[in-house]
Amino acid sequence: MTEHEIKIAFNEYHSVEELNAGDYSLCMDAVDALATSHSPYSKFKVGAALLLQSGKVIKASNQENVAYPSGLCAERVALFHWGTSYADDPIVAMAVTAKTEEFELLKPVTSCGACLQVMAECEKRQNSPFKMLLYCIDGPVWAIDGVHSMMPFMFFEERLSQAI
Ligand SMILES: [Zn+2]
């Protein structure tokens, strides 16, 4: 028997003002994306923004549906948009934020497992990691270098992914 240990390192910034100009701007793009959220059921708006190597920014938000499972998280709306239209332009960073009138958010929102799986495959697809910025409005920002560190046991089978 061999015991293994996995450690995850991330940086916490106490406010968005501590970030460099590029990361700050991407967090503000995620805030802008909240305006397009379609979330009448959860009343929980999520905004995501992708910074691509060319400098282009893709903004997206969560899109709910009365048939609940038909909706999609902001992160995957953004990533699938990237995959269909900009996959030749690697993702450098992704910012995610959230807002609700129902209660006060005190820490950054973290992505669901399905989104982490998709993010991790996007990293493999472009053969380079991207930075995650999880931003709590008026609160801290968690910065993680590489999605793979949040999803160390992601499902991946090389032989199923010859096209990647
Ligand atoms: Zn998700």
From TrEMBL:
The lineage of its organism: Bacteria, Pseudomonadati, Bacteroidota, Sphingobacteriia, Sphingobacteriales. GO terms for biological process: nucleobase-containing small molecule metabolic process; pyrimidine-containing compound metabolic process. This is Cytidine deaminase. Residues 21-164 form the CMP/dCMP-type deaminase domain. One of its GO terms (molecular function) is cytidine deaminase activity. One of its GO terms (cellular component) is cytosol. Gene3D superfamilies: Cytidine Deaminase, domain 2. Pfam families: dCMP_cyt_deam_1 (PF00383). It comes from Mucilaginibacter pedocola. Belongs to the cytidine and deoxycytidylate deaminase family. It comes from the Bacteria.
